[in-house]
Structure to design on (392 residues):
């Protein structure tokens, strides 16, 4: 094979693109990633930075997702101890909290069971005398506080670490390089991309579309044409407020609509998120709305009196990411967060697109993509097992 010919070309250097590259390289395939801006510059760098099972997905009975995420969390804690660390999560239940203590108890017990009774997934109820030590949380009307654990990471650093791991196994990265089109001809893809003002081509047996919220735009650039996948883009914003919280992460209900919102320690300040706003338009223009900033400020102030007088001028930073959710109508908060691997005709077109998913489960997603592709590629000799690869 010449230098510009690969078994697999991956469009997009978000967590799913680099996770696919790592799984491909570990399985012994040659793979190249084309990323237009920076690793983790899309959704993957705009997440809540949690490596978590997703307690709230139990409400919508997404048990397989929770189980997979808990398993992946345990693997990341083992393989990336410098990048992923366990944090206490506090769940305060107030008089007006919709999710009652019995429900939380059932949810956390299921969570523990789904983790295989992993010691990092148990929970306790905090004795009343400890409520005063919860970063100045408003204790008026509190009926109970549950404590369990999740892990936190720096999503951009994690994305870079996974790509480094893939590159150590031989993967190539083209960046900044914009995918501009691909044609399926002579039993493979001719992939065109622009880098530093020059248009280049590579050949690839398989194309993986890991374009995140841009995935349908990527699909529109392939020949033969593939239909758009029916998804909605739902914007989630975060704000960074001045001031430290130290005990852990707080998971509270936004007073406006009772959605779960995280209040988290982040780089010496406090990160609050997220919102859910249906987004129409080019994903590159996604940015926090004034109404989202006010929503998050109000939620933070309701639970932490020290933020009560904070206004938009006190927001140190804010960012927005786009969730890719199956278009099903209804409330985005309750829609499936499972990853969709879409292929119109895998054998004929040799193209697979990744929609949705979680930062936490990127490794499992990458492995699933390679499991689907592998039967259609010449056999390869595996170089590594992604479950055991350290990330630094
Ligand atoms: C607000 C929010 C909070 C979240 N919080 C969490 C969390 O705490 N924990 C968790 O597990 N999950 C979380 N998620 C989910 C998780 O962040 C996403 O599922 C994941 O990051 C998606 O990664 P991706 O690689 O599919 O997409 P992206 O990260 O968006 O990557 C797509 C990449 O494709 C590139 N690209 C697009 N078009 C082209 C082109 N033509 N040429 C070259 N490159 C191109 C883009 O530049 C981009 O880097 C959250 C999601 C959101 C929106």
């Amino acid at each position: 094979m010449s230098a510009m010919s690969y078994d697999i070309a991956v469009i997009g250097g978000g967590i799913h693109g680099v996770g696919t590259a790592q799984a491909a390289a570990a399985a012994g395939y040659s793979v190249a990633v084309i990323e237009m801006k920076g690793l983790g510059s899309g959704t993957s760098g705009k997440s809540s930075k949690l490596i978590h099972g997703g307690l709230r997905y139990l409400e919508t009975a997404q048990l397989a997702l929770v189980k997979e995420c808990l398993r992946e969390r345990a693997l990341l804690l083992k393989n990336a101890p410098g990048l992923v660390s366990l944090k206490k999560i506090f769940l305060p239940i107030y008089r007006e909290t919709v999710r009652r203590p019995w429900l939380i108890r059932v949810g956390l017990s299921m969570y523990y069971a789904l983790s295989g009774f992993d010691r990092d997934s148990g929970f306790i109820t905090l004795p009343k005398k400890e409520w005063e030590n919860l970063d100045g949380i408003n204790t008026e009307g509190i009926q109970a506080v549950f404590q369990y654990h999740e892990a936190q990471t720096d999503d951009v650093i994690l994305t870079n670490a996974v790509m480094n791991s893939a590159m150590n196994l031989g993967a190539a990265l083209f960046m900044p390089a914009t995918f501009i089109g691909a044609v399926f001809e002579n039993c493979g893809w001719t992939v065109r991309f622009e880098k530093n003002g020059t248009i280049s081509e590579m050949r690839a047996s398989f194309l993986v579309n890991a374009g995140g919220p841009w995935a349908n735009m990527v699909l529109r650039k392939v020949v033969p044409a593939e239909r758009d996948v029916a998804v909605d883009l739902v914007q989630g914003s975060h704000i960074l407020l001045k001031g430290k919280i130290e005990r852990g992460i707080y998971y509270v209900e936004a007073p406006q609509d009772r959605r779960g919102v995280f209040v988290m320690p982040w780089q010496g300040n406090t990160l609050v998120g997220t919102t859910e706003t249906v987004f129409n338009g080019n994903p590159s223009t996604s940015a926090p709305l004034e109404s989202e900033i006010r929503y998050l400020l109000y939620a933070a102030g309701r639970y932490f009196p020290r933020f009560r007088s904070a206004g938009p001028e006190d927001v140190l930073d804010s960012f927005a990411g786009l969730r890719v959710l199956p278009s099903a109508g209804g409330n985005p908060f309750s829609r499936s967060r499972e990853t969709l691997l879409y292929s119109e005709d895998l054998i004929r077109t040799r193209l697979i697109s990744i929609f949705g998913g979680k930062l936490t489960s990127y490794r499992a997603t990458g492995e699933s993509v390679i499991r689907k592709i592998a039967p259609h590629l010449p056999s390869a000799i595996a170089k590594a097992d992604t479950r055991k690869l350290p990330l630094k």
Q: What stands out?
A: The longest strand covers residues 142-153. The mean pLDDT is 94. The CA atoms of residues 285 and 320 lie 10 Å apart. Residues 63-79 form the longest helix (17 residues).
